[in-house]
Amino acid sequence: MAGWMRMGMILFHIFIASFIHLNQIIVVSSGFLDTFTPAEIQSRINLINVVAVDENADNELITVVEKLASVAFWEEHGVMIGKIDLSNFVWPSGEALKIQHLPTKKEPSDKDVSVLIFPKRVLDRTCLSTPPPGPPTAKLCTGEQSYEALVECVNSICNTYRLPSGALSIAGLHREEILNTLFHVGHFSNMSMGQLFGKSRSLLSSFHKEESCPDKESSQKSSNEVDNNEAFIYTNIQESSLKNVIHQCEKRNLLSKEDFFHNYLKISKPVIIKGALDDWPALQKWSNSFLRKEYGERDVHIKFTPTGEYEGVEKASLYENFDTFKIPSNVRKQLEFPDLVVVRPATANVKFSEFMDIVESVTNGSRKNISAYLEYSSIPQHMPELEKDIMEMPFFSNLLKREHLNIWLSDGNTLGKLHFDPYDNFLCQISGRKQITLFEPHENTQLYEAHIPEAILSFNKSTGEFHRKALLDSTSMVMSPVDILKPDFTRFPRFADAYPMSCTIEEGDVLFMPAFWWHEVQSFPNKTAGRNLAVNFWYEPFLTKEFPCPLCNLDINPKYRHLL
């Protein structure tokens, strides 16, 4: 009741103290701003942005700030506006207030220290042992202290989109439209993972019933064999009888920049662009012999696994140091899956020619039980001469900021397990093909996004044996603990409600994979070259989120406000 009375008083004051002049509302000071203590600010910025004016500022400025609260940001739930006693401001820790002067043409003066913004705190989610954050640094709205200038300042710092009238700007309306129309696989598919595996079990049951000469032994198939059959059906989804029920990636020919931006990038929708690499010299030029000749003596960092599976999740108890390895209690209590680990492959620094020897020996069958992969290796850093043989997509150039350009080369029989990348991704297939199974990033509780401890394989070059040597004191933030080939719906029941999408790219194709989409990548070799070769462009994402945070939603990256 007190809250409603206070709101009524605010509205009453605004009504009797306002008048219309040139279509703008001018609010006369009504004295309704709360005064925030340092402790209150430190607590509230975990959820919202705090804008504060010095309570000792002149009445004209306080009136302008009251108008921010009662008009421009009245309906903005992510911004709270009030007053502080700047002359006596000390954080509960005893530290003094630090103020960041934003770049401006006007030199800051003592008079400017009046309207401060304490931005919503972005949590450091990268490390589970990070100490509590210290007091925040306030950002100062310097320059002209007019109402319109302060609205602009609050918008730029708090990532809001309000006009002086309080309405959403065109950019704000565009943002709302984007977030309300994001692509959801479930809107176009009736096949969830739970339904998919129910259907595949039904198919397997029919298969077993139709086997000739059934006997007691054949009817008692082990659960592992059934699981392997299910994995076979799912891995070969494009060729199986299930292919018509899994939602497939849309395929397009070359796009215009406008088409790509509005129909794919801004709504976070994957798409395959057919024949996008037809003009790339790399398609014909990058033969095994060419790469050997140009880079044979270069040192490369490669990954090894015994089966071609990369970054899977398995039990920590399989590792040799399990009994002696201790996770600090303050870290362990934050882990959702302390009994599981993300398996990092064994690594080695070798000459590129030695790497190609391994690839070719695996391909011709002379070497077994090993897979070698040159994965996400930077082209500009390690093979800069190759960049002239490839080019960015013409419909995408100068749209987003490029962060990485990588090469991916293997014998072709590799499986990159379920994970996401915090980049907008163009995956460009040069040799062989890839089948990618994707899950959208909008319901990350279904994929069990979390910190997962890591472990690493070791490889003995002389014996060719792999060992599960070491649990690590690091965690992965981008891997899912769910095995999509053999899902444990008892432990991960929400995964049954996830909707898969299948995308297969052939030589010359490009897959646009928006940031934070979960994906598992099965590679297949070009039978003639005996390899799988791709490059990918990673960009600062248009839509971003905090991670690992299964309940955090995508939002427009503040770095791309100018695109709205």
UniProtKB/TrEMBL annotation:
Listed PROSITE patterns: JMJC
Domain of life according to the entry: Eukaryota
Sequence ranges assigned to domain JmjC in this UniProt record: 368-554
Regions crossing the membrane: none
Protein name in the entry: JmjC domain-containing protein
Organism: Potamilus streckersoni
